[in-house]
Amino acid sequence: MKNAKPMNRDWIATARTLSHALPLLQRYDGATVVVKFGGHAMGDDAAMESFARDIVLMQQVGVNPVIVHGGGPMINDMLARLGVKSDFRDGKRITDAATVEVVEMVLSGRVNKRIVQAINSQGGRAAGLSGKDANLITCDPADPALGFVGIPSKIDPSLLHTLFAADVIPVIAPLGAGRAGETYNINGDTVAGAIAAALRADRLLLLTDVAGVKGENGEVLSELTPEEIRSLIRKGTIAGGMIPKTETALTAIDGGVRGVVILDGRAPNACLLELYTDHGAGTLIRPER
User: Fold this and answer.
1) What domains, with CATH codes, occur in the chain?
2) DSSP code of 109?
3) Of 86, 71, 22, 284, nearest to 191 (Cα)?
4) Of 39, 121, 232, 284, which alpha carbon lies 20 to 30 A from 49's?
């Protein structure tokens, strides 16, 4: 008779973690979660592989994940390689006809398909699209002085519901069509917030390169309400690049999203930590505590 193999402590810890996660697995079964993926969170191939595995796992346990991605560094690299000069106004890129062609090529091509392939390689089924597909995002100019930079005026999520029904994960490049069919580049956070609101998503996860929203003493705040966000902005505690992210969160919540989380996308398994542990990750923003 063979002796039983000794129990490995790591196996026991894994089993205990799965058991403790059961209520949260049930909580998010059937939920829609929109994830903004970009910047430093995209990282290298290993980070991309880890992110893709987490997204596939989320879908496997009943979540409908939607990925909205950015790609600013890749756009800058391609513009430089092609010798396309960029001008800026108040820190924002003026996107002329030549620039928006490069933006569309990079976002809908190189960046989008890299994420799609990463998810497919982990056993998922992802489909890449942009806001121009199936009239997903209709845009107005954000500022005529900026050229082809848009702001969503209408979201038609019917294609996303079709993909959910087919167990396909949408991966969306932040582009939209103007009322005359012209192409507009849109801020990725803005697109993620608008998509989440149109889907009445349970969660919007904004993956960034900081641990969350910080308080007056530099500590990461685990939970905030919209009124607390506005107060911190008035005091100057929330400043710089965190202002547009929190404003995206407020707009999404006003649009019907149940909660928005700003978290460090560079942390291993960041999405899983937020959804399936009691502690969570980053800063959760929701209408009331």
Assistant:
1) 30-285 (3.40.1160.10)
2) I
3) 71
4) 284
